[in-house]
Amino acid sequence: MSVSELSASTQNYLKAVWGLSEWSSDLVTPSLIAERTGLSLSSVSDALRRMTGQGLVDHAPYGSVVLTDTGRAHALAMVRRHRLIEAFLVTALGCTERAGAGPVGPQRAQDLRRRRRQLRGAQGRHA
C-alpha cells in the first residue's frame, strides 16, 4: 500500500505518532495522540486498531504505540513531501510565514495569486 492509498485520517495519525516519537524519548500513548490531534481517546483507539491491522503500527490495548517499518516509511515520506512543499512556497512563491502553519487568509491568497501570475508571465517570456 502506498502513502497515496492511505486515508487522510490515517496519514494524520502516522504523522502524529512520528512527531511524538521523533522528538521525545517518552513512550507514545493513545492519550498523547488524542491530545496532539485534538480527537477523542475512543477515536484514536479505533484508528490504532485499524492501523495495527494494516501493519502500520504495533499497539496492544493499554500499551504504547510504535510505528512499524512500513508505518515509519510512510510517515517519513509524508514529512519529506510537506517539507518540499514548504520549501517551494517559501522560495518560489515568496511566502514569509511558516508555510502550512495556519489557514490562508484573503490577503495571503491574493498575494499568492499575484505571485503565480508573475511566474506565469516570466515563464512566457522564456519560452
TrEMBL record:
* Subcellular localization: Cytoplasm
For this UniProt record, give its keywords in alphabetical order, as a comma-separated list: Activator, Cytoplasm, DNA-binding, Manganese, Repressor, Transcription, Transcription regulation
One Pfam short name: Fe_dep_repress
What InterPro entries does this protein's entry cite? Answer: DtxR_MntR_Metal-Reg, Fe_dep_repressor, HTH_DTXR, Iron_dep_repressor
Q: Which residues form the signal peptide?
A: none
Family affiliation: Belongs to the DtxR/MntR family.
Query: Quaternary arrangement and interactors, per the entry?
Result: Homodimer.
Q: What is this protein called?
A: Manganese transport regulator
The species is Tessaracoccus palaemonis
